[in-house]
């Protein structure tokens, strides 16, 4: 079923274009304007692609954009669906598998996330160096799809060391405030309690969010190289006196969106 569904999406896209991406970019909440950096060859609404679901969350577009960035062929997933929206894990990782099967060997996965210690400034970025799956789920549960990957994928390097170093080099050069750390992935849709934020911080977390972890697992299953970047839109619950709202998260992401587009474009061109 999983493989057939992925192939159905790939076949539909292949009927529109024979473009082969080398790199995919998954754009998180409020970070969708990066599509403007790309010279589009084909733009397809998720609602038209069999097996894709339009995102229900405000701040997430719902389009696959295939095009050129410098001399790189990229596939942009503008918007994603989340487990908390009610989708199965297979549905959550479906677009990742599709761009992988279209040809992307390197996957850049972005998100908005909450910072797990009080020294972090909202509006800064975190380069993901590892992840902790706190969702209680795994997209690979069930019969292994051997055409996609092995039963027991190695997770010793969820985020490619060399490419993450390269991204950090660009952030330094451009003087973009950032740090690196471990991303804790939760189900949501509730924001964390103060006790959860304290626990994740003490366990070594840098940021917490409601996406990314399943996508990274599916990408690694397929043997892809992954780079992860979080826009830290807020401090985790209890680290500041403010209550969290999605509007605030979107507002901070859009404040740094042009900076984000700028360094991401340079990074992709450098790959
Ligand atoms: N927690 C979880 N997800 C998030 C947060 C947060 O604080 N901010 C943006 N996405």
Textual characterization of the structure:
By secondary structure, the chain is an alpha/beta fold. It has a single domain (2-270), classed as 3-Layer(aba) Sandwich (Rossmann fold), CATH 3.40.50.1580. It has seven helices and nine strands. Strands 5-8-7-6-9 form a five-stranded mixed beta barrel, surrounded by four helices. Helix 4 links the parallel strand 7 (178-185) and strand 8 (205-209). Helix 2 (89-102) crosses helix 5 (213-221) and helix 3 (161-173) packs across helix 7. The model has no long low-confidence stretch (mean pLDDT 94). Hypoxanthine is lined by residues 112-114, 191-192, 208-210, 233-234, 236, 244, 249.
Topology, pairings included?
Elements: H1 2-16, E1 23-27, E2 39-45, E3 63-69, E4 72-78, H2 89-102, E5 106-115, E6 125-133, H3 161-173, E7 178-185, H4 194-202, E8 205-209, H5 213-221, E9 225-235, H6 246-255, H7 257-269
Parallel strand pairs: 1-4, 1-5, 5-9, 6-7, 7-8
Antiparallel strand pairs: 2-3, 3-4, 5-8, 6-9
Helix pairs in contact: 1-2, 2-5, 3-7
Bound molecules: hypoxanthine.
Residues 112-114, 191-192, 208-210, 233-234, 236, 244, 249 line the site of hypoxanthine.
Please report the first level of CATH classification, the CATH class.
Answer: Alpha Beta
Radius of gyration: 17 Å
Number-wise, the strands total 9
What do we call the CATH homologous superfamily?
Answer: Nucleoside phosphorylase domain
The description of the largest β-sheet is: 5 strands, mixed, barrel
How many helices? Answer: 7
Low-pLDDT regions: none
How big a fraction of the residues is strand?
Answer: 25-35%
CA-CA gap between termini: 34 Å
Strand-pairing-aware structural class: alpha/beta
Strand order of the largest sheet: 5-8-7-6-9
Number of domains: 1
Mean pLDDT: 94
**CATH fold title:** Rossmann fold
Taken from the alpha-carbon principal axes, the silhouette is: globular
Query: Could you tell me which ligands this complex binds, including any ions or cofactors?
Result: hypoxanthine
CATH architecture: 3-Layer(aba) Sandwich
Helix content: 25-40%
